[in-house]
Every structure is written in structure tokens, then in C-alpha cells.
Amino acid sequence: MPRVQRRIYLDSASTTNIDPEVLSAYKQLLDRYYVNSESLYDEGAEISRMLEKARSACAGLLGVKSNEIIFTAGSSESNSAAVKGVCFAQPGKKHIVTTQIEHSSILNACRQMERVFGYDVTYLPVTEKGSIRIDDLKHALRDDTALVSIMLVNNETGAVNPVRETAEYVKKHSHAFFHCDITQAVGKMPVSLENIDLASLSAHKLEGLKGSGILVKKTHVPFEPLINGGEQEGGLRGGTSNAQVNMMFARTLRLALERESKNREHIQKLHDILIEGLRSIDGMEINSPEDGLPCTVSFSYEKIPSEVMQNALNRAGFMVSARSTCEAHSNNPSYVLQAMGFSDARASSCIRVSMSRHNTEQEIRELIHTLKEITDKYGEL
């Protein structure tokens, strides 16, 4: 299959292109404000004021207090900080509850807590639809549970967890704190942080700049810093602030929330075309649940391994992933699909298509046409 000149991006769960309004504002900011926000001269003080204004705006958009926003380098840092920061602040508790399908930044943080610090971690199973059962959580909670961490939307399948009900139960029946990774949900569905003690999100998933994340930490939550340094971020995240980039998070978040409803309608149409097309291909299996977020669709064609399918699509001009980009260089089957009960063959042949407002119906139809060509060519080898 010859390489084509036109490239079609279908990997928005991995990252997004920068919104022109955000990029323009950032360039203008850099032209004048390039100094350290902690500096005592006028320019540094002005950047510090602008950063606090952006922090307040982010807080308002998320429905929390300004001093509950901690700027980080991204969701991976926010996730790791949430796990370790809350647990280290409660030395008498040595138990964590999470799920088998969390992002690797959560799972690896929990494994480190087990391996290095002697914590006991319960990894909740999921249904074939990729979401947890609340009854499993109820049985997992213990008196020494320090933290429950459950993602809202899975980054591989788009499956949505019952976070509202889960957080409410934890709040009423446990002294554990509740963390939620909302990275793949913000700007794609309504998100409420009621009963959620900590939450992670990242700007580059929202057409913002890379290197900027947020950890929402409610004021009542005990916390030990992951990164030690000065008094940046209220003493909770040391190191020179990436102030100019973090300032853009407020604009990025506002634009994403303003466009949420319109984008969802457009992406639902793309999703429906994609699902119909996938079902027309013999042997194609759809891994994403019907009630998941429409922007992310995982599917498998067991006769063609993920790497082969991904390379064939790449040569045809399509940019897609097999699973989470943080796991892109792993040759192992998708641990998310394995947790959902799918076979190793199915978990080793998965492809993830994640769509945005920039994609068109014609692009999805071209993808289906190309998939049919690939399965016809390679499926019988």
C-alpha cells in the first residue's frame, strides 16, 4: 500500500493541536513576559499576578477554590503526586484502592508504593464494558485505606466509570480520600468535582500547551509535596514555575468548555459512521462500550497484530494508536482489554481511534475504506 501525501490525525486522546487563539496569546506573552515569576522586580511581580489570575479563572471553571489549584507539568505528574502526596501525609494508613485499567502513571505509582514503601493496593476488576462495579469497591474499602483513585473516562476505550456514585459512597462510608483522573473527560462531557478530593487534568489534551497540568487538591486534604523546592504553588510543588505556559491553561479550559456541547454533537456523528463501518468488516470486533464517550473507539481485527495494522494505516496516511501513547512502545497486549476479559489475541490486535472537532465525516469514511483494503490484503496471510 503506497504512502500517501495527505495525513489524517485520529489520535486526539494522545494529544491535540494547539488552538490558534491559545498559541497567539502565548506568543504575545513571551514577547514581553519571560522572566521568573518569583523575581521581586516589577516584571516578575506582574507575571506572578497574571499567574494567580489564571489560577483563579481555572478554579472558577472547575468549581473549586483558587488555592485548590496546583499547577504541574501534566496529568502524569498530577496522578503521581496525588497517590504519593496523600499517602505520605497519612503514615498510619497503608492501603490504596484503584482499578486495573488506570493510566500507567497511576498504576506505576501504586506499584512503587507496594514495592518500595510496603503499601497494600487493591486493583478493582472491571466489567466487559470496561467500568467498575460499585459493590467491588464497597468490599475493598478498609479502615486503613488512605486513598481511592478511579479514572472518570478510560483513555483506551472511552468507557465511563460511575464516579459520582463511587465518590459519594467513599465520602459517606470511609475516611479515605478520593482521587479522580479526569484527563480524558474534561471538555468532552460534564464534569463535577463534588465529593472528589483530588483531580488530575492536562492542557495538551484540550488543544492547549504541553507541559501544563493541574492537580486539584481540596483544602481539607493532607498532602506531602512530590517535588521539594521553594514556596511555589503554595509550597506544594517546588521548582521554577512554568508560569507563561500555565497562564494559558485558563484560556484553554474556557474554550474547551464553551465548545463542549457543539463538539459532542459533531463527534457523535463521526462515531456513528465509524461504528457502522467497522461492523461492515467481517472479523472486526469493537472493544469500546456503546455507552462510552463517542470520541474514543477501540477495535480489534485478530488476524492482524496491532503493530502491523498501525503501520499499514500509517502508510495510508492515518495517525492512530494501538493503546495509550504512554504504552505505545510496549509489545504486550493491552492490559485494559485483558482486564475487560478479552482474549490475548484481541488485546494484541487493538487499534484506538480518537476523534476531535477537526475531523470530518469524509475522513472517517476514508478510514473505513482503508481498513477494508488492509483486512482484505493482510487478513488472509
Give your account of this protein's structure:
By secondary structure, the protein is of the alpha/beta class. It has 2 domains: 8-17 and 259-378, Alpha-Beta Complex (Aspartate Aminotransferase, domain 1); 20-255, Aspartate Aminotransferase, domain 2 (3-Layer(aba) Sandwich), CATH 3.40.640. The protein is 40% helix and 14% strand. The protein contains 11 helices and 12 strands. It has helices at residues 20-32, 42-62, 75-88, 104-117, 134-140, 163-173, 243-279, 306-315, 335-339, 344-347, 361-378; strands spanning 8-9, 69-72, 95-99, 120-124, 145-149, 177-181, 198-202, 213-217, 284-286, 296-301, 318-319, 350-354. It has a 7-stranded mixed beta sheet, with helices on both faces. Strands 9-10-12 form a 3-stranded antiparallel beta sheet. The longest helix has 37 residues, at 243-279. The radius of gyration is 21 Å and the shape is globular. The model has no long low-confidence stretch (mean pLDDT 95).
Distance linking N and C termini: 15 Å
CATH class identity of the largest domain: Alpha Beta
Strand content: 5-15%
Structural class: alpha/beta
Low-confidence segments: none
Shape descriptor reads: globular
| Run of helices and strands | EHHEHEHEHEHEEEHEEHEHHEH
Q: How big is the Rg?
A: 21 Å
* The CATH homology group name of the largest domain: Type I PLP-dependent aspartate aminotransferase-like (Major domain)
The residue fraction in helices comes out at 40-55%
CATH architecture of the largest domain: 3-Layer(aba) Sandwich
Q: How many alpha or pi helices?
A: 11
The CATH topology of the largest domain corresponds to Aspartate Aminotransferase, domain 2
Mean pLDDT: 95
